[in-house]
User: What shape does this take?
Amino acid sequence: MNGVALRRKILGVHRRIRQARLFAKAMQSSRHPVLAHVIPTRRCNLCCAYCNEYDRHSPPVPAAEMLRRIDRLAELGTAIITFSGGEPLLHPDLDELIRRVRQHGIFATVITNGYLLSPRRIERLNRAGLDQLQVSIDNVLPDEVSKKSLKVIEKRLQWLARYAEFDVSINSVIGAPVRNPADALVVARRAVQLGFAVTAGILHDDCGQLVPLSEQQHAVFNEMVNLQKPFFGYGRQDPFQQKLARGLPNNWHCRAGCRYLYVCENGLVHYCSQERGFPGIPLMEYSTEHLNRAYETVKPCAPYCTISCVQRVAMLDQLREAPLEAILNLLQPPLGQQSPREPPVLLRMLTWMFLTGAGRQLFRKAALRVLGVK
Ligand code: SF4
Ligand code: SF4
Assistant: This one.
């Protein structure tokens, strides 16, 4: 094992411990943001046909302003900050921003199209303390819809496999009108070969709502499920996305505006990238009262929403508030199967703990003691 691989392993173990602490903290209190997406620049170097989150001209948000926003998110108790865009690697001070996130003990992640990666850039991200990088790839060869293409990015992926000390995941949008929907499988298999995690998002319209999948896209989605790492040690795809892939609505309470924040380039808090303008309050004025209100607000767009990061965060609250429902959700049969698989021992133990008062008490005390959460 070379030096980078060893360091990656050690940092990976440390990261899993921090993730467990983050999980414990999220389970303990419902009134701090678990995840915030912040936009350091709206500008992108590509122009994907299905995207409504970029422009070609905006300047980067000045570093001093971004640092103030990060400090404010830390004050609100945010656990994970993701830099998204536009293309966040276009921000000249991204490393400094990542460093500030890590100084607050917050998990730092970046979503990128990967075009600007180089061995030196990866090394700088290592030094800044990046925890996770998600590269979005839609097809094998560029077409009129997307140039986030495996053939263009291949060399960068090899550099990531060789030099990155942070976690890497590859995401494909299923339902994007690319020339060949089956390309997502080629991308996913290559990602697995290189040792990366694989995720699949489902395309949404301008309001974050499901765009129904064609038969072929549905089949591709099903196959991708088997290439993914198990979700919470059980199902390979999260239950929200499974239902949406079948064209079915989800019954859930979106906690955007509290547990998930979208902070645009102007420093305003929105529910998510597709519900911009709600509530549209400056982050610097965002208070516990705003968090509490957003937590309770029912969002009518929830049933057919495809924004998976908000749904994953909502699962934590569901697990705390309605453990039986949450666990039953997780025990849904994997796609294409009629009955649930036998749950693994760990999940059965967790089920017992969450379903009995004594088990819950025991679990909470033990977890908080082990993780040193106050
Ligand atoms: S690379 Fe990402 S941000 Fe840029 S246009 Fe494509 S989807 Fe939008
Ligand atoms: S349900 Fe929540 S995450 Fe989904 S579109 Fe509506 S506000 Fe955004």
